[in-house]
Write a structure and sequence with these properties.
The complex is a heterodimer of chains A (332) and B (351). Chain A has 332 residues and is mainly α. Helices cover 76% and strands 0% of the residues of chain A. Chain A contains 13 helices and no strands. In chain B, strand 1 and strand 2 form a beta hairpin. The chains are: A mainly alpha (332), B alpha/beta (351).
């Protein structure tokens, strides 16, 4: 197993390099190129632009630019934002905690709801409960995220004023993850946690509705298939209790086809948060990404895309490994 | 002496979109302690459904068991037991071996775990005692280096070895009755013989009663004390093994025996197949269900009345209105070949 994990990680290194190359080249193909941010500035002369290009190495051949960028990134220098003049790595890392907080919570909640829901629906197939959740999941599945987010804000924030409409902290409290935030957090932990929770409710609902609907359907069909297998009949013939049969005999085989899906939803959540973070002005990576695109801030864009690709790669490895853990027939 | 198992008026039907499939129609039989009973019939004759009904493993719905049916095991009607009482019988008193050992073992659990779980459940053994017993059982069913194989998964065993594991699981709690539902069908011929040998040996060593379900008359021949033949959800002939083979009295059994090649046959007799297909189990004919395929049929009589099982000689009963034996000449006009129409081919439960 250890050997397999090590090999799997080693194989992913060239993949990561390939990804970095593709990401860099795709960015070059975008209209305007890296100099777009300065192209529209009427007060900038052609000479000034040439100077900037020379200073940042943008006049060199694309391949050379790529190698320079790659080597620098390897050393931890992800470049400097065109607009805020801050190092990209620092910019991104400042945003990571907010995104992780939202996404991990959403992710855990999502699995905790979707998997039991799917299993229950499968075990009570065609019952009233199953039919009820089937209808509910179809509604949830067909709900566009941006629309759902806006409706939630309109209803629960604008009308009922139950939850804040956006941001991660109240306006008068210190900004999240700023220098003064954590001391303030330590002094008023209940207050701070309550505020965080209240701010998270609407974005989390927005994020998980579609995923819960989809995942519970996957789980349901997988469980249905498993529960009709011959070895479940064998388990029944042994005189085991139905709950033991589900827990010991059906759960693991039923999880197999679902595992890939479970492992790959987290990176999808991280990347797909762009819409949700924008609707709720959540100060995470998604919002930073949208901002960097609208400002043609190339170094930040590349940095975030690369980070997300790396995430997806890591979770692919996790999916493969958990597959091997659950199913003894799989040995690499 | 009261028999170990007595099945009275067992009727099982399945609700389907096409109508009620009457899989088992009024089946009566008994099984004594330590006895081996063979149940023979083609696919869809209701033999598996009968065994699943005894174990109450049929999902209801779609299965419907008639309320007058009785399965009396050691004096109590299993069909009337509460679920938790029935669970104490399954695996402990009555155990079952299934047809396909490739799919009947859980692929993600070690065989040690799968054997010990019934030991822990029914015999209340602790981990260590259960493992010791599991090793004994594996040795008993002839698995080499049994102690090293407890931690292996089913995919690390061959088909025959897996069936041995299934048997070890089934006999683990010393059941009074072992139901073997086509235990050799999925295995190749040499392995079939080994598994049958194993069952014979275990029967002698443990004294377990065995109900052996198969579509293969050859399998039950050397193994069973009594044999009953099923057709269209009914028992159509029942006798001790010898008389049944020597002197079959039901045209269906005669047909089955004629379609088996014999080592001692003289010359180059051609095998005689039974023409046609079993009846549609949704709309059973009012007369003898075998009539359309019967070589000795007399349509006017046979289509009017369902023949009941009747004694043709001592301990030998057959469901035919006529006294037919192997020597009865087949009438000059052969039975017309029944052409299968789309209506005849309906989905019916396996068995």
């Amino acid at each position: 197993m250890t050997k397999f994990i090590i090999r799997r990680i080693l194989i992913s290194i060239p993949v990561l390099i390939g990804i970095s190359f593709l990401v860099f080249m795709i960015m070059q193909l975008a209209p305007g190129g890296p100099m777009a941010a300065f192209g529209q500035n009427p007060r900038m002369t052609a000479e000034q632009r040439a100077t900037i290009a020379r200073n940042w190495g943008l006049d060199k051949p694309v391949l050379e630019q790529y190698f320079n960028w790659f080597l620098a990134m390897f050393r931890g220098d992800w470049g400097t934002s065109f607009t805020s003049r801050q190092p990209v790595l620092q910019l991104v890392m400042e945003r990571v905690p907010a995104t992780l907080l939202l996404m991990l919570t959403a992710y855990i909640l999502q699995q905790c709801i979707a998997l039991p829901l799917g299993i229950m629906s499968a075990l009570k197939r065609y019952s009233l409960t199953d039919k009820f959740f089937t209808i509910l999941t179809y509604i949830g599945f067909s709900m566009p995220t941006f629309w759902l987010g806006l409706i939630l804000v309109y209803t629960f924030s604008a009308n009922f004023k139950w939850f804040p409409s956006g941001q991660i902290t109240n306006p008068r409290d210190p900004a999240f993850n700023s220098a003064s935030y954590w001391p303030w957090f330590a002094n008023n932990p209940l207050n701070a946690l309550g505020s965080l929770g209240a701010h998270m409710v609407l974005p989390i609902i927005t994020l998980i509705v579609v995923n819960v609907a989809a995942d519970s359907r996957y789980m349901r069909s997988s469980m249905l298939e498993t529960i009709n297998q011959d070895y479940i009949r064998t388990a029944r013939a042994k005189g085991l209790k139905e709950s033991t049969i589900v827990r010991r005999h059906a759960l693991r085989p039923a999880l197999l086809p679902v595992v890939t899906n479970i492992a790959l939803t987290l990176p999808a959540l991280l990347g797909g948060a762009v819409v949700t973070e924008t609707i709720f002005s959540w100060p995470g990576m998604g919002l930073l990404f949208i901002d960097s695109i609208s400002r043609a801030d190339y170094p930040v864009m590349i940095g975030i895309v690369f980070l997300l690709s790396a995430f997806i790669l890591i979770f692919n490895i996790i999916a493969d490994v958990s597959y091997a853990i659950i199913d003894p027939r799989i040995r690499y | 002496m009261e028999p170990l198992l007595k099945v009275n008026n067992l009727k099982v039907a399945f609700k389907t979109d096409g109508g009620l499939v009457k899989a088992v129609n009024d089946v009566n039989f008994y099984l004594n302690e330590g006895e081996t009973l063979g149940i023979v019939g083609e696919s869809g004759s209701g033999k598996s459904v009968t065994s699943m009904a005894i174990m109450r493993l049929l999902p209801t719905p779609p299965a419907v068991i008639d309320s007058n049916s009785q399965v009396i095991f050691k004096g109590q009607n299993l069909l009337k037991l509460k679920d938790d009482q029935m669970r104490k019988i399954r695996g402990k008193e009555i155990a079952m071996i299934f047809q396909d050992p490739m799919t009947s073992l859980n692929p993600v659990l070690t065989i040690g775990k799968q054997i010990t779980e019934s030991l822990k459940l029914h015999m209340h053994l602790d981990d260590r005692a259960a493992s010791r017993r599991a090793i004994e059982l594996l040795k008993l069913v002839g698995i080499p280096s049994a102690d090293k194989r407890l931690g292996d998964y089913p995919h690390q065993f061959s088909g025959g070895m897996r069936q041995r594991v299934m048997i070890a699981m089934a006999i683990s709690c010393d059941p009074k009755l072992l139901i073997a539902d086509e235990p050799t069908t999925a295995l190749d011929v040499t392995i079939q013989a080994q598994i049958l040998e194993l069952l014979k040996r275990l029967r002698q060593e443990l004294g377990t009663a065995i109900m052996l379900i198969t579509h293969d008359l050859g399998v039950v021949a050397g193994m069973c004390d009594r044999i009953q033949v099923m057709y269209a959800g009914k028992i159509v002939e029942t006798a001790s093994a010898k008389p049944l083979y020597a002197n079959p009295r039901m045209p269906y059994t005669i047909g089955l025996l004629n379609s088996i090649p014999r080592l001692d046959s003289e010359g180059q007799d051609r095998l005689i197949p039974i023409q046609g297909l079993p009846p549609d189990m949704i709309t059973l004919p009012p007369g003898c269900p075998f009539e359309p395929r019967c070589a000795y049929r007399q349509p006017v009589v046979c289509q009017a009345k369902v023949p009941e099982l009747r004694e043709v000689e001592e301990g030998h009963r057959a469901a035919c209105l006529f006294d037919i034996t192997k020597e009865t000449p087949i009438p000059e006009v052969p039975a017309p070949e029944v052409v299968a129409t789309a209506n005849d081919v309906r989905i019916s439960p396996a068995g």
